[in-house]
Design a protein that fits this description.
This protein has helices at 8-34, 38-63, 75-80, 89-131, and strands at residues 4-5, 65-66. By secondary structure, it is mostly helical. The protein has a two-stranded parallel ribbon with strand order 1-2. The longest helix is centred in the C-terminal third of the chain and has 43 residues, at 89-131. The two termini are 48 Å apart.
């Protein structure tokens, strides 16, 4: 196993790009769920698998990356630091903040999509109950007297 020396910022920026792409894809999935667009949803799931694979690859590469030895930071990194601040600290804090923000947005969109999926599942079960009320036959009840009740709620 070989290790390479690469600035953490490159890894973080690539991770940010992947998270941004994931967030955009998840927002597109939300629209597909709302519009009952199964073809679009299938394309987005396939694209999501590609993004997940890229994220796995990035994570594996980051395990093989070591920080450069102290004192070998580029002059640009040192010139961007504010007086009294460790070189590169401000940039890393911004990246960390952006990662946290994107993570929270992804969590919220995931929750919304989960609710849409659950609502759709409940709706499908209700329709199935209306079309095929029961697998058991009760000759004492005519099929037209079986009640259809709504068991789902719509939450956005």
């Amino acid at each position: 196993m070989t290790t390479t020396t690469k600035p953490k910022g490159d890894h973080n920026e690539e991770q940010l790009d992947l998270l941004r792409a994931s967030l955009l894809l998840m927002q597109e999935m939300t629209e597909s769920l709302r519009n009952h667009d199964l073809d679009g949803l299938e394309r987005q799931v396939a694209a999501g698998e590609g993004l997940a694979s890229r994220m796995d690859s990035l994570n594996q590469r980051s395990q093989n990356v070591v920080d450069p030895p102290a004192g070998l930071n580029s002059v640009d990194d040192q010139s961007q630091a504010l007086p009294g601040e460790k070189a590169g600290g401000s940039v890393e804090a911004q990246l960390r903040s952006e990662l946290e923000r994107l993570g929270e947005e992804i969590r919220q969109v995931t929750l919304r999509n989960r609710i849409l999926i659950e609502t759709g599942r409940q709706f499908a079960e209700t329709l199935l109950q209306a079309v095929c009320p029961s697998p058991t036959y009760d000759p004492s009840k005519p099929t037209s007297s079986l009640p259809v009740r709504s068991t789902f709620s719509l939450n956005y």
